[in-house]
Amino acid sequence: MSLRRFVLFGVISVFCVSPASAGIIVSMDMDPTTGAIESHRVVAVNDEFAVDIVLTLTGDTSLALYGFGVRFDTEELDFVSRTETPPSPFSEFDKTNPFVDNLGPPYEPALGAVPFGWLQRFDGGTLGDGPVAPAVLRVATLRFKAVQPQGDGSNIDLIAGLFEPGIDGFYANDYAELAPTFQGGSLTVVPEPSSLVLLGIAAVCVGGWHFRRRRKA
């Protein structure tokens, strides 16, 4: 942890008051190209795709400091890369971007008992006042590769959380601790297009063979 971050957390620990009366929502935008925050996406096996992490400030919330991790289902996804872009006036504290793969079950109920990967320490902060609600802040972009067909849109494959006590947290301009709501992302992975074509050809061939047998009979 940098000296700056250590001092900032020390200030927060001394002056922290009761949680702020508003809130912050941490969302996974599974398809950043649409403009809206999409929580579900359909992709094919071997597709690479982007996911944005979005912080939405509501009510009377301000935000001076944030820190969190992300976990994802490694049976369905391979991690490719991450890019953190803390919006002004935030600065990123920890640039090491640690990643731990296949930690194994069980996990929190959101993901179920599946092996998961952990992307640690997405963070940003300012020594002055941060943005105030209403605000929508896109703070990072992740890239994943779909690895096998599964999912139906009802499962959670990707979610943020406060996984490192003493490191992760959200704080307002007055040092009040914020209690974020974490909204996960879901994925439906379908066979790659070439596989679908082969399945279609096989179905036609089997259907034709069955039709010829019936005619001969």
Largest sheet, if any?
6 strands, antiparallel
Helix content: 10-25%
**Rough outline:** globular
What structural class do the secondary elements suggest? alpha+beta
Descriptive notes:
This protein is α+β, with helices and mostly antiparallel strands. Strand 10 and strand 11 form a beta hairpin. The chain has helices at about 5-15, 195-215, and strands at about 25-30, 40-45, 50-60, 65-75, 75-85, 100, 115-125, 135-145, 160, 170, 175-180, 180-185, 185-190. The protein has one domain (about 5-190): Immunoglobulin-like (Sandwich). Strands 4, 6, 7, 9, 10 and 11 form a six-stranded antiparallel beta sheet that branches. The chain has a five-stranded mixed beta sheet with strand order 5-8-3-1-12, with no helix packed on it. Mean pLDDT is about 80; it is low at about 1-20 and about 195-210.
In short:
This protein has 217 residues and is of the alpha+beta class.
Tell me the layout of helices and strands.
Layout: H1 3-15, E1 23-29, E2 40-44, E3 48-58, E4 65-73, E5 77-84, E6 99-100, E7 116-125, E8 135-146, E9 158-161, E10 169-171, E11 177-178, E12 181-183, E13 186-190, H2 193-216
Parallel strand pairs: 1-12, 2-13
Antiparallel strand pairs: 1-3, 3-8, 4-7, 4-9, 4-10, 5-8, 6-7, 10-11
